[in-house]
Amino acid sequence: MKKNYVLIDYENVQPETMAALERKHFSVLVFVGANQAKVTYEVASVLQRMGDRAEYVKIAGNGGNALDFHIAYYIGQLAAKEPDSYFHIVSKDTGFDPLLQHLKSKNVSASRVKSISDLPLVKVEASKSASERVSAVIANLAKSGPAKPRTLKTLA
Known about the structure:
By secondary structure, the protein is an alpha/beta fold.
């Protein structure tokens, strides 16, 4: 399974379902703004249990899009180092969408979701029955539009 990086815009989203990211195929980066002094206990405890698969990135400066630029930088660095990985930005900020379109044009797998529970892998794993899991996969493929996998290998 591809490695999945989840980059959380903590200024924009304070996730409540962090435990869903404790699976081995997830690595998590939580981006915290310069003026943010606290994270919730749930976030801290899950990241601590994840060990080296999770980290905080504290933004040093202030500015309208300072945190967004940090996320963009980290995706670039990670994509250069691990091009076969998948990148998920957890943010309600639609300003990431042009970056994601550009990444996709460069064959970098990336998407933005508004919450952790919207991540396709989390939805599929949370589904109880086989038919629910199949429905979740089909819904995700339908949402992909022209970016659907073209070969069985890519689909797998």
